[in-house]
Write a structure and sequence with these properties.
Helix content is 0%, strand content 62%. The protein has strands spanning 6-15, 21-32, 38-46. It has a three-stranded antiparallel beta sheet with strand order 1-2-3, with no helix packed on it. The relative contact order is 0.28. With 50 residues, it is mainly beta. It has one domain (6-46): Complement Module, domain 1.
């Protein structure tokens, strides 16, 4: 957490309908409002575009 911003990094993993396993890294960035509820969220997935 830096100031009023929170950053989260992780990996989403699942099995697709065709049986392929996938794992994609992501980062979420949150900014709270005056009640400390998340007011804004940005999301980035680290995956190549095909």
């Amino acid at each position: 957490m830096e100031g009023d911003r929170v950053a989260v990094r992780g990996v989403f993993g699942d099995v697709l309908a065709n049986g392929c396993e996938v794992a994609v890294e992501f980062a979420d960035f949150f900014e709270p409002d005056e009640d400390r509820q998340f007011a804004r969220r940005e999301n980035d997935f680290f995956a190549p575009l095909i």
